[in-house]
Design brief:
- The complex is a heterodimer of chains A (111) and B (112).
- In chain A, strands 2, 4, 5, 6, 9, 10 and 11 form a 7-stranded mixed sheet that branches. In chain A, strands 1-3-8-7 form a 4-stranded antiparallel sheet, with no helix packed on it.
- Chain A is 0% helix and 58% strand.
- Chain A has strands spanning 4-7, 10-13, 18-25, 31-37, 44-50, 53-57, 64-70, 73-79, 87-94, 101-102, 106-110.
- In chain B, strands 2, 4, 5, 9, 10 and 11 form a 6-stranded mixed sheet that branches.
- In chain B, strand 6 and strand 7 (61-66) form a beta hairpin.
- The chains are: A mainly beta (111), B mainly beta (112).
- The A-B interface holds A 2, 31, 42-43, 45, 48, 50, 55-56, 88, 90, 94, 96-105, 107 and B 31-32, 34, 41-46, 49, 88, 90, 92, 96-100, 102-105.
């Protein structure tokens, strides 16, 4: 287990549900990231926060809403998702610039 | 647009052989280079980082960087079936950015 934790590890939700993914890092890093990884596809960077400010938003649909209340916590709020949003959602942190430490991921299934 | 290219594979090698994984990048000013290993259904984990031209060895792994030719490679000696995974190349671009660019990954299969 790394110093980056994610909850829940698995999530099944309907298209009308609202849920949130949580990420916490205990490494003292100053940057946190959300990635999406679909089957047989490469990592897709979604959001980057540095010192709690969003610095990157890679044209992610508004049904995904990030929140970074402090340098140790990162949330991804989900609402009105589509089945094609089913994927592994990975959180990572880094002491910028440097290697990234990934959490175990949340396996999301949208019915 | 900054790009990192990897052959998606699969690269199949027999147990005990040397596996060679390659990665090219487009941003000539890139400063930091990383290799991650990702087992199926798991998250990526760092196995090597390299910052200057030449070779860097860590156990059975050797990273090679050639900034003039803009490529970075990973050699795995004495490959084991447990090395079977997808290997991701990541490059931090110039300017001190902490937003890395990941390649698509190369699938490695080590067969007994």
């Amino acid at each position: 287990e790394t110093g980056v934790t994610q909850t829940p590890r698995h999530l099944v939700m309907g298209m009308t549900n609202k849920k949130s993914l949580k990420c916490e890092q205990h490494l003292g890093h100053n940057a946190m990231y959300w990635y999406k990884q679909s089957a047989k596809k490469p990592l897709e960077l979604m959001f980057v926060y540095s010192l709690e400010e969003r610095v990157e938003n890679n044209s992610v649909p508004s049904r995904f809403s990030p929140e970074c209340p402090n340098s140790s916590h990162l949330f991804l709020h989900l609402h009105t998702l589509q089945p094609e949003d089913s994927a592994l959602y990975l959180c990572a942190s880094s002491h910028a610039p440097g290697q990234q430490f990934f959490g175990p991921g949340t396996r999301l299934t949208v019915l | 647009q900054k790009e990192v290219e990897q052959n998606s594979g699969p690269l199949s090698v027999p147990e005990g052989a040397i596996a060679s994984l390659n990665c090219t990048y487009s941003d000539r000013g890139s400063q930091s280079f990383f290799w991650y290993r990702q087992y199926s259904g798991k998250s990526p984990e760092l196995i090597m980082s390299i910052y200057s031209n030449g070779d860097k060895e860590d156990g059975r792994f050797t990273a090679q960087l050639n900034k003039a030719s803009q490529y970075v490679s990973l050699l795995i000696r004495d490959s084991q079936p447990s090395d079977s995974a997808t290997y991701l190349c990541a490059v931090n671009p110039s300017g001190g950015s902490y937003i890395p660019t990941f390649g698509r990954g190369t699938s490695l299969i080590v067969h007994p």
